[in-house]
């Protein structure tokens, strides 16, 4: 019986078992009675929101610069209001004398001192009861309100839109459990009301801008589309868009023609725009979205103007919509949720 051929010395030694690569997430294996160290996780460490990163530093710096710029603008215009009250005729008398000397050189028949005397008569009338100071104060006060409306309102709106979800979660975190459902329902109502209001406002302003641009183009006014867009933007304050459009269009018309020939056609165009807004856009678009009568909207806007100027006129309708939604939800919850009762 033949014996099998002897294998070579290299094949007689058993081959070591294949070494399995440790993958991320595999369970540790035992070797020589010791457990292998777990493989490092492939996921980067999560940011828990407490660390300082370059992105957070940049955001903080930009926010600080924006706040500082806003504060400086408001301080500057407030200081300008105070400085405007120090205007006097004597401060501009030298300019008037220079102008009068040039006029006398060109027109010798004029009487010397006529311009300065006329200016003094006008100034005596204006300065009576501090009328000029009041005029300058009112003008710069209006300019300050415009700065508030142009700078502060968009700044706050941007961060509400950007961090709205984070603000919502942060607010709900502080709400006690017994009021959680009511608070969540209130937030949903507020978001729904504001979204409906902003969409209706956008549609209404677009409609007013379209009608105003079309009618102004028929009058032969230059930059009719620009004036119409300005009127539509100004209509973010209800009922004020066509009036602002008439003022802007009149200024452009006088600069264009040098007379008042286009004033009446512009007035007719803006009057038709106002009628379209009052009879069509307000009842069918804006009032339905705001869930308020047009007369109520007008009174709310006037109250906002008395309380906070232009900014009050801008935020009067949104604030009223939010407060009404909050009160309705709270009263409904008090009647139906036993948890709100003591």
Task: Tell me what the structure shows.
This protein has 342 residues and is an all-alpha fold. Among the domains are: 80-141, no CATH class; 178-336, no CATH class. Helices cover 71% and strands 1% of the residues. The protein contains eleven helices and two strands, in the order αββαααααααααα. The chain has a two-stranded antiparallel ribbon with strand order 1-2. Helix 9 (241-257) packs antiparallel against helix 10 (263-290). Mean pLDDT is 71; it is low at 1-51 and 83-89.
What does this entry show, briefly?
The chain is mainly α and 342 residues long.
What structural keywords apply?
disordered N terminus, 342 residues, 11 helices, mainly alpha
What are the SSEs and their pairings?
Blueprint: H1 9-12, E1 30-31, E2 34-35, H2 54-84, H3 93-106, H4 114-127, H5 131-162, H6 164-173, H7 180-218, H8 224-234, H9 241-257, H10 263-290, H11 294-336
Antiparallel strand pairs: 1-2
Helix pairs in contact: 2-5, 5-11, 7-8, 7-9, 7-10, 7-11, 8-9, 9-10, 10-11
């Amino acid at each position: 019986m033949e014996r099998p051929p002897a294998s070579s010395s290299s094949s007689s030694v058993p081959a070591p078992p294949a070494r399995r690569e440790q993958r991320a997430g595999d369970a540790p294996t035992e070797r020589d009675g010791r457990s292998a160290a777990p493989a490092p996780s492939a996921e980067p460490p999560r940011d828990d929101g407490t660390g300082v990163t370059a992105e957070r530093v940049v955001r903080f710096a930009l926010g600080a610069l924006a706040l500082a710029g806003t504060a400086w603008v408001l301080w500057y215009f407030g200081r300008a209001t105070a400085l405007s009250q120090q205007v006097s005729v004597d401060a501009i008398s030298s300019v008037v004398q220079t102008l009068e000397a040039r006029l006398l050189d060109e027109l010798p028949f004029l009487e010397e001192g006529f311009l300065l005397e006329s200016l003094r008569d006008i100034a005596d009338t204006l300065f009576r009861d501090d009328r000029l100071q009041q005029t300058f104060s009112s003008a710069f006060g209006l300019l300050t309100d415009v700065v508030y409306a142009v700078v502060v309102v968009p700044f706050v709106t941007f961060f509400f839109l950007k961090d709205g979800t984070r603000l919502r979660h942060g607010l709900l975190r502080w709400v006690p459990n017994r009021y959680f459902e009511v608070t969540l329902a209130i937030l949903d109502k507020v978001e729904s009301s504001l979204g409906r209001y902003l969409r209706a406002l956008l549609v209404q302003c677009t409609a007013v801008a379209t009608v105003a641009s079309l009618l102004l183009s028929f009058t032969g006014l230059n930059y009719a589309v620009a004036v119409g867009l300005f009127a539509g933007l100004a209509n973010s304050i209800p009922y004020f868009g066509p009036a602002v459009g008439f003022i802007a269009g009149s200024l452009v018309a006088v600069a264009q023609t040098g007379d008042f020939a286009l004033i009446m056609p512009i007035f007719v165009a803006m009057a038709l725009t106002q009628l379209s807004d009052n009879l069509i856009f307000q009842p069918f678009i804006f009032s339905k979205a705001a869930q308020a009568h047009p007369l109520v909207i007008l009174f709310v806007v006037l109250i906002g103007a008395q309380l906070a100027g232009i900014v009050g006129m801008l935020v009067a309708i949104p604030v009223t919509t939010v407060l009404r939604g909050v009160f309705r939800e709270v009263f409904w919850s008090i009647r139906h949720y036993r948890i709100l009762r003591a």
